[in-house]
Amino acid sequence: MTNFSELNISESTLRSLKRMGFEEATPIQEGTIKFALEGRDVLGQAQTGTGKTAAFGIPLIENIDPKNPNIQALIIAPTRELAIQVSEELYKIGYDKRVKLLSVYGGQEIGRQIRALKNKPQIIVGTPGRIQDHINRHTLKLDQVQTLVLDEADEMLNMGFIDDINAILENVPDTRQTLLFSATMPPAIRKIANTFMKNPEEVKIKSKEMTVENIEQFFVKAQEREKFDVLTRILNVHQPELAIIFGRTKRRVDELSQALSIRGYVAEGIHGDLSQAKRMSVLRQFKENKIDILVATDVAARGLDISGVTHVYNFDIPQDPESYVHRIGRTGRAGKSGLAVTFVTPREMGYLRIVEETTKKRMTPLRPPSESEALVGQQKVAMEKLIEIVQANDLNEYRILANELLEEHNAVDLVAAAIKSMTKEPDETPVTISEERPLPARKERSGGGRSRGGDSRGGRRDFGRGGRSGGGGARRDGARRDGGRREGGRKEGGGGGDRRRSSSTPRRRED
Ligand SMILES: Nc1ncnc2c1ncn2[C@@H]1O[C@H](COP(=O)(O)OP(=O)(O)OP(=O)(O)O)[C@@H](O)[C@H]1O
Ligand SMILES: [Mg+2]
Question: Where is this region: Disordered (predicted)?
Answer without folding.
Answer: 424-511
